[in-house]
Amino acid sequence: MARVPSIPAWSVALAAWLVAAPAWGFCRSTTCDPRKADCLRDEEGCKLTGLPLAWRTGCPGLSLSPRGTRNVDAAEVERVLSASMASWSALSCGEPGAASFAWARLAPSSCGVGYRRELPNANVLLFRDDAWPHPGAENTLAFTTVTYDVATGEILDSDTEVNAAQNPLTTGDVGVKFDLQSILTHELGHALGLSHSADPTATMYATYDRGATSLRTLTPDDVDAVCEAYPPDRGAPCLPTPANGFSADCTESAPPDDGGGCALGHGSPTPPACVACLALLLVASRGRRRGRHA
Question: Which of these, 106, 240, 254, 291, could form a disulfide with 116 (CB 3.0-4.6 Å)?
Fold first, then answer.
């Protein structure tokens, strides 16, 4: 059985991998964790160190928590989620064809946030109606946790939490408060391996203006990011079910970890997995923006 390297070992090893600096606004998430290693960045804040994150499958499956949210009608949540998933699916990359990525929909799942290495899982969208369990509740709209393999950059699991406890969500085109479709479209970009963009017009820009609906629609910067991460000629099969199978509840306990590797952030990732957590922040006031998470 191959031995999982210690944290210092893989941190040093990954420092040798460099991701080419983009000439545009988008950034891809990488395996370099700034809490554990010195991640080199370009002038736009994109990480240059580490392997870029991406799904191996061409169509990862996404599940909605059956609890839904008290703030939005269930049918509206379904409609908005479908629209957000479609925004990132089968995008045109020009002459080569369509990007080799499309979100697939799986059955509802009550699984929480986290990845279980040896048991079935689910990529879940869930709403926090009663309390926000993370810091910065007053200015965080949503939070996506991406679990990945540190040796390859393969995304193993993604889970998105929406802060419905602090923010009145809306789905229409008038009387907009916090547009759910904008929030979900942004977070699904994180779930496919994109970080925040330096382009202030992009869906993947780090902050949201209250009342805006512009994040529903991808910009050329967002499309370029997907085409780089999931080129048409990637040859990825469509496998929506997680590698260990799909779970609708995740009530079975995972076996204890045997040490090594790393486990970062919240959730329960096990070696060789690490966690990247990315949030969509609310603009503090008109003309002033909060700092970006990367």
Answer: 254
**SS3 call for 14:** helix
4 located within any domain: no
Neighbours of 78 (CB within 10 A): 14
Q: Maximum Cα–Cα distance for the chain, whole Å?
A: 58
Contact 51, 31 (CB under 8 A): yes
Q: How far apart are CA 184 and CA 162, in angstroms?
A: 8
* 277: helix, strand or coil: strand
What separation, in Å, do the N-terminal and C-terminal C-alpha atoms of the chain show? Answer: 35
Residues, the chain, total?
294
Is pLDDT above 90 for 214? Answer: yes
Residue in 208, 205, 207, 202 with CA at minimum distance from that of residue 224: 202
In a domain, 210, yes or no: yes
Beta bridge partners of 218: none
CATH label of the domain that carries residue 169: 3.40.390.10
Domain containing 182 equals 53-294
pTM for the structure as a whole:
0.82
Instruction: Decide if 184 is inside a domain.
Output: yes
Total tally of structural domains belonging to the chain: 1
Mean pLDDT over 13-31 rounds to 58
3-class DSSP state of 75: helix
State the pairing for strand pair 124-127/169-170: unpaired
Q: What is the average pLDDT value for the chain, to the nearest integer?
A: 81
Angle between the 180-191 and 74-87 helix axes, to the nearest 10 degrees? 50
Contacts of 61 (CB under 8 A, 6+ apart): 104, 105, 106, 122, 123, 240, 241, 242, 246
Instruction: Please report, for the chain, how many H helices and E strands are present, in that order.
Output: 4, 9
Asked if residue 7 belongs to a domain, the reply is no
